[in-house]
Specification:
The chain is an all-beta fold. It has 1 helix and 9 strands, in the order βββββββββα.
Length: 217
């Protein structure tokens, strides 16, 4: 079984309540090689009753070979398992990384669970300054993609940072149990911190190749 949290395969899409279909700019598309397996990773929460599900996927194909390939990448905190303390109203988790190659930034998709409060994405410039590209209030029941009005070029070495804030207090009406610490997990009563973002790269570059830095080639 593939482990989606650390897979080297391309992520075709991420869907959550409130998500809209992906629609890429002219000349850009996701690439699905012939004979690929499409693997669905579904997160369900039991409710004590039997149920069935029939999931489908709709794909619109490019009419001409695109010049750019779209990759979905992520900044995720899955190392310390997010031990959010009980009754913490503004718990902060931050993850950062650097782009290994040039890319055009297209969109963001922040993902947390029921304690999610706020999410932001920042980029660090070569001169040491920082720029906030997105800062939003988070709603687990209405998870949105945030698309730039146009592609934003980011050179190799650009620092990216994702910051999430959680409300594990009684002030959060969606909180299942404010008196308990919260660990990382796939279930809704656990927590996640994943800052998905989409970039466009040359059409002949796949995900593994993108993460090979120039000095290592």
């Amino acid at each position: 079984m593939h482990e989606a949290h650390s897979t080297t395969s391309d992520l075709l899409l991420v869907y959550a309540p409130g998500s809209s279909p992906d629609n890429w700019p002219e000349g850009m598309a996701k690439y699905i090689p012939a004979h690929s397996d499409l693997i669905f990773q579904m997160h369900y929460t039991t409710n004590g009753q039997p149920a069935s599900d029939q999931t489908s996927l709709g794909v619109r194909f490019a009419r001409t070979p695109p010049a750019k390939r779209v990759l979905t990448l992520q900044l995720a905190n899955d190392s310390d398992r997010i031990p959010i303390p009980p009754n913490a109203s503004n718990y902060r988790v931050a993850v950062e990384g650097t782009l290994p190659n040039d890319a055009e930034l297209l969109s963001f998709f922040p993902h947390m669970h029921l304690r999610g409060k706020k999410f932001e994405y920042n980029i660090g410039h070569a001169d040491g300054t920082q720029e906030t590209l997105l800062r939003v209030n988070y709603d687990f029941y209405w998870q949105l993609s945030y698309r730039l009005s146009g592609p934003r070029f980011l050179p190799a070495g650009t620092k990216l940072e994702a910051i999430a804030r959680y409300d594990n207090s009684r002030n959060n009406p969606h909180n299942p149990d404010p008196d308990s610490p919260v660990q990382w997990g796939d279930q809704t009563y656990n927590e996640m911190m994943v800052g998905f973002f989409d970039v466009a790269v040359p059409a002949d570059m796949d995900k593994e190749k993108f993460f090979v830095r120039a000095e290592n080639r």
